[in-house]
Design a protein that fits this description.
By secondary structure, this protein is α/β, with parallel strands linked by helices. The protein folds into two domains: 133 residues, Rossmann fold, CATH 3.40.50.1980; 148 residues, Rossmann fold, CATH 3.40.50. The chain contains ten helices and eight strands. The strands form two sheets. The chain has a four-stranded parallel sheet, with helices on one face. A four-stranded parallel sheet has the order 6-5-7-8, with helices on both faces. Strand 5, helix 7 and strand 6 form a beta-alpha-beta unit. Helix 2 packs across helix 5.
Length: 341
């Protein structure tokens, strides 16, 4: 009798639990989770780096991966609407961990203006990201002045707005992973969630999270050195994905072709940005591999402004534990190289 019960007891015992099956939404999150899991396992990537999370629709194979996952680490529905609509119904109860909503995550308000900064204006002061925590009870009381986002969005006379635009995004910018402070804040949470699913390896997850934080700190220092000569330059980006990176490193972006949700820009927005470039000393206009480069040509027509590529998803980088530090330094290198032209 006792012999017949033994297999069932072994299956039920948490001491023999396997490393959880983990799914992540985008490559930067996959990299962070991989750095915490270490040699114990490899998180699966749901959205390919070459696809935009704003518009990516889940394939059947991706939905199956989501359904079979023990844990899902993702930014949130603010970044990936289709995933946000499906994750509650597909993923197991309690399996999904939104990093956008994680305690201590810094949030910046989405920007709507054609121009974010006037040419010659001072760049963002970096080092003040931590003031804006999503966990506060009254989000309306958050101060954005330190980040240069004290614009009164209701006062259209003070800023050059896109004429007749149909989309007005008053929520928070979802590209939270480009804040180095956010990435560092998430590591202990990732370790905690993995440890709850796999207590046997809790010490390993915690140690890996500490080591990953140290590597990110090194990447931050390297990026600061690379960008030392770029903080007085003006840049234009394809879509408003880099605000957190700007704040982290004191950069100045004049404007974006598309808003933070990557919706297609109106002709009026393109005209306004093209006019602004005529009178601005922009060091570079940055394209993104996920989007149509023809819009870059429409904006830079008549302007002698260099065009380079800046990828918030790190499409060309190797996935894994070193992905996130490599993403930060590669972005810094791209900006520095263009600023030096």
């Amino acid at each position: 009798m006792y012999r017949s019960l033994l297999p069932a007891l072994l299956l039920a015992s948490p001491a023999f639990a396997e490393v959880p099956k983990v799914v992540t939404d985008i490559a930067p999150v996959q990299g962070l989770v991989a750095s915490v899991m270490g040699d114990l396992g490899e998180p699966e990537l749901l959205i390919p780096p070459g696809a935009s999370p704003h518009s990516h629709a889940l394939k059947p194979s991706e939905a199956r991966a989501l359904q079979n996952a023990d844990l899902v680490f993702w930014i949130g529905g603010e970044l990936s609407p289709d995933l946000g609509r499906k994750i509650d119904s597909i993923a197991a109860d309690g399996a999904a961990v939104s990093l956008f909503d994680a305690p201590g995550t810094v949030h910046l308000q989405a920007r709507n203006d054609v121009l974010f900064a006037e040419p010659g204006a001072e760049a963002h002061e970096h080092g003040h990201e931590g003031h804006d925590e999503h966990g506060d009870d009254d989000h309306d009381e958050h101060e954005h002045d330190e980040h240069g986002h004290d614009e009164a969005h209701d006062d259209h006379d003070e800023h050059e707005h896109e004429a007749g635009h149909a989309h007005h995004h008053d929520g928070d910018d979802p590209h939270v992973w480009l804040s180095v402070d956010n990435a560092t804040t998430w590591l202990p949470l990732i370790a905690q969630k993995l440890s709850e699913a796999d207590p046997e390896h809790a010490d390993t997850y915690a140690a890996n999270a500490e080591a990953a934080a140290a590597r990110i700190a090194e990447a931050r220092a390297e990026a600061q050195d690379l960008l030392a000569g770029a903080t007085d330059k003006n840049f234009v980006v394809f879509h408003d994905a880099f605000q957190y990176f700007e704040v982290s490193f004191g950069l100045k972006v004049l404007g974006a072709i598309s808003l933070s949700d990557a919706t297609a820009p109106s002709p009026a927005r393109l005209d306004a940005l093209r006019d602004a470039l005529q009178g601005a000393d922009a060091a570079c206009v940055f394209a993104e591999p996920q989007f149509d480069p023809r819009l870059i040509a429409a904006v830079t027509e008549g302007a002698d402004t260099p065009v380079a590529e800046l990828d918030p998803l790190g499409q060309t980088l190797d996935l894994g534990a070193e992905f996130y530090p490599a993403l930060i330094t590669s972005l810094a290198q791209s900006v520095a190289d263009c600023a030096a032209q």
